[in-house]
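Model it.
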Amino acid sequence: MSEDHKKQIQSQLKKDVHIKNMVCQRCIDVVLEIFERLNIEITNITLGKVQIKSDLERTIKKKLINELSLRGFELLSNTQIILVNEIKTIIIEFIHYSENISNDKLSEILTQKLNYSYDYLSHKFSEIENKSIERYVILQKVEKVKELLKYNELTLKEIVYQLNYSSISHLCSQFKKETGLTTTQFKTSNTLKRHKLDLI
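Modeled.
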């Protein structure tokens, strides 16, 4: 890799602001409002990342860190934690914001988007999160099932299709194992206990 190419990559990294706990459209709206209030020009904003036009001045960066913290967000700088955050963001988008999960292997999607081998991504994720990527995917899928059960707009068969479970029995057994409740018990419960996506 040439020195010019290295400098170009480093410059781009400086203009990518990575933010923890940014997991939904409402989060994007809140973060966008913070950047606008601080007069930070952005070129793009997605879950977990804001691209800005120029590097942040020290005083502005300090204000940004404070504003984000007050809203429950965190500005990330450690490269390994940024990588894990990107893995989480891709998984959340894949499970929660796709109309139905494709048959594409998540491992292939992660490697294509992040340009690392799945073994490397899996190792780093487990090292920092103390759980495997596969375990994290299961927990996110169970939260999505809870959401769909709560809205009561889809049948179990339709949920199975949307989340790419192999069968209704597979979904139900995984749900019972993780929540201690059957899907029917969860739907009829007065306390529909759900977890925030950023806390999983």
